[in-house]
């Protein structure tokens, strides 16, 4: 099934929450890469730049890109995890796709919803702090991929 046919088959009610428009988004990034390696490099540069700019954001908001998260260097290094789990996958999935001879793009899938179970907190160097509900991922998608083509969402 082609991507376009799959999008047209998306349910219109929220009983299939993971496919419903209110539960997240699927975007075609709109990058113009000549190889899959170049596509990954371009995507990585955008994410690295955004996360560097977000240093002023709280550790809790930055954690929504996935855990564990190591912040700082050497003596100032901080480890960020969940209090009851060491790892949490990112709700942002990135897939490089070939769309023509020597032409690659990416599909960005943001799976909305709760990042961690209710009552879960962050552990920053062993100190417990509240897990923020706001995510940086929608801001990342808005700022870095404003010209992206929405496929779902």
Structure explained in plain terms:
The protein has helices at residues 3-8, 36-53, 59-62, 137-144; strands at residues 24-28, 69-71, 78-82, 92-100, 103-111, 122-124, 127-129, 149-152. By secondary structure, the protein is of the alpha+beta class. The strands form two sheets. A four-stranded antiparallel sheet has the order 4-5-1-8. The longest helix is centred in the first third of the chain and has 18 residues, at 36-53. The protein is globular and about 50 Å long.
Entry summary:
The protein has 153 residues and is α+β, with helices and mostly antiparallel strands. The chain is built from four helices and eight strands.
